[in-house]
Amino acid sequence: MTGGVKDRSQPVYPFARVAPGTVLVAVDELGDPGAVSVVFGEGIMRADVAVVRSGGRIRAFVNSCPHAGTPLETFDGRFFDEADPTILVCSTHGARFRADDGYCVSGPCQGLSLRAVAVRIEDGKVIVA
Ligand code: FES
Asked: Which domain holds residue 50?
């Protein structure tokens, strides 16, 4: 399974799984704060994973807002609140999530969370655990 360029015309399924051991991105490709979206699979197996680095920590979430299921970023790579690099913002309706754990602190899905994807760092790469 390999990641690819995002095709926004195709739906992403929030419960599609990415196999353990899958390489998501090289650590060097992430800024701090920084985030990338990596899309895997086709059809009902299509998954979108947001890999996020903030404050030196790297986490990954299914890139699907719990409010309406859209990806967080409308513009490629624009995940963070411009004034607060600890907060991810859904560009569809403005929900705000802690980058640390994906918990929604305000907006239409307040109290819900992004689905975490367990990852490990190995040989300078972010890998699904
Ligand atoms: S889809 Fe994210 S806030 Fe509505």
From this structure: 3-128
